Amino acid sequence: MIALRPLYILLLAAAALVLSACGSTGGQSAGAREASAEALTQVATAYTLGSSDRLRVTVFGHPDLSGEFEVDGSGAISLPLIGQQQALGLTTKQLEESITTTLSGGYILNPRVSAEVINYRPFYILGEVGRPGEYPYTSGLTVQNAVAAAGGFTYRANKRIIYIKSMDSDREIPYDLTPGTVVKPGDTLRVGERIF
Asked: CA–CA separation, 57 vs 115, rounded Å?
């Protein structure tokens, strides 16, 4: 019984932490909790490929099958020997596995494939910025950098909220404009007008 006491105390402490975490969201509305969850996915999700991404695919030991390829409007890349390979919505790891599976189906014995993004699809910024439009994406891009690239805020801009519509979403989500708010390739950012 004495040997189980530390385990019992540890379980009680874990239960208390879970309950306190659940209770901390009790004051939020359902919409705020949903926006918070989407804000986390804005940061935490793995990058998935989309149209206009440029990739370097390497099939080790086969330079004639390796090269740079762009994801076309249908979401595919056209590779030597095996032709069209679907890339839309896949991570680079999933694309590597897909190409490896196709190549090992009668083309190459034990293929080893590497895929990396060398140019990401652009992002778009609209609203109260100096030069709205399309801009090239760079790794680690934040909203503040995106606004700076677009000529900064206009005098009417709301500098506290940014609206972001991801490529894989059909609606804009409002985010607090903080230094850590990230931009993903293909995102459309909108800077609203302040009310007063």
From this structure: 4
